Amino acid sequence: MTHEVDAADGTVTTSRDGEVLRITLDRPSRRNSLSHSMVDALVDALTAAASDDALRAIHIQGAGGDFCAGADWVATNADGQRPRAGHLVRRIPHAAHRVIDLVHTIALPVVCGVRGWAVGLGCNLALAADFTIAADDALFWEPFADRGFSADSGSTWLLPRLVGLARAKSMLLLGDKVAGSEAADWGLIHDAVPEAELTEAVEGLLARLASAPTVAIGLTKQAIHHGLHASLADSMTQELFNLELSCRTGDFKEGLAAFREKRRPDFRGR
Q1: 161 pairs with which residues across the strands?
Q2: Which residue of 11, 80, 157, 220 has the fewest C-beta atoms within 10 A of its own C-beta?
Q3: Strands 139-141 and 191-193, how do they pair?
Q4: Is 148 left (phi over 0), alpha (psi -120 to 50) or beta?
Q5: pLDDT tens digits, residue range 212-269?
Q6: Residue 170: which of 157, 159, 182 has the closest Cα?
Q7: pLDDT value, residue 95
Q8: Phi, psi torsion values for 93, nearest 5 degrees
Q9: Which residue windows are transmembrane per the record (predicted)?
Q10: CA 12, CA 36: separation in Å to the nearest integer?
Q11: Strand pairing partners for 38?
Q12: Which H or E run includes 119?
């Protein structure tokens, strides 16, 4: 399956690799900065994936040497005019913000592999993923203040929860860049590896996730995010409802059988 947009504005390509959906941001000449049409295509791809029961993991990557340089504000503002009143309020919730929301809430594990630059919306896309593995010399950058406007695409929610207020402010208010190795040390991302080892590390993680109990993984992801703004009692109630659902899956039965038979489970994602 291939989903493409106007080549002049870059492309977003999706392909099925077994039970893994691979999404590639393909505009290497502009460090994979996202045009309006690319953002719309990314929303479409993630929306379709959310209801595809055959999928068990999603992989997002950038073409060439960079992950994503964020929204293409240069092209968007090429005529030198400020956005008309209300334009951003109307569009962004259904575009950039919708991308982050979909990655955050989809009942599938999302893995980002990051080389080179991850900037603005591109940075927050990587931070919203369940697992991001970066080259140790990759750079994560929130350049909003440097460009004269306030932060968006979930950065003010994601960063304090991932790395605390002090580090969030250094990235968002001072525009400090964070290398992949430092991002992993901070807990900003899952792991950092030498660039030559990035593909192997990402593929190994995707293989683990694609063979996991997909329904239980999705319900656990939902419960983790619910717990970020809930009390302990509310979180345990949510866990109880999710447990009721996961115990009705075929993977639950397979997990019990494998435990009894002292073998590795063969989960099917059902």
Answers
A1: none
A2: 80
A3: unpaired
A4: left
A5: 999 999 999 999 999 999 999 999 999 999 999 999 999 999 999 999 999 999 999 8
A6: 159
A7: 76
A8: -60, -25
A9: none
A10: 11
A11: none
A12: strand 117-119
Question: Looking at this protein, which amino acid is placed at residue 22?
Answer: R
Domains of the chain: 11-211 (3.90.226.10), 214-261 (1.10.12)
Q: How far apart are CA 188 and CA 175, in angstroms?
A: 16
Token output for 223: 């419960």
The span from the CA of 3 to the CA of 7, in Å, is: 12
Bridge partners (DSSP) listed for residue 20: 17, 57
- List the helix and strand counts (H, then E) for the chain: 13, 9
Q: Look at the block and give the residue holding tokens 């913000």.
A: 97
Q: What is the DSSP string of 32-68?
A: TPBPHHHHHHHHHHHHHHHT-TT--EEEEEESTT-SB
User: What DSSP character marks residue 110?
Assistant: E
- Tracing tokens 């896309």 back to the chain, one arrives at 125
Q: Are 60 and 202 in contact (CB under 8 A)?
A: no
As a whole number of angstroms, the distance between CA 201 and CA 195 comes to 10
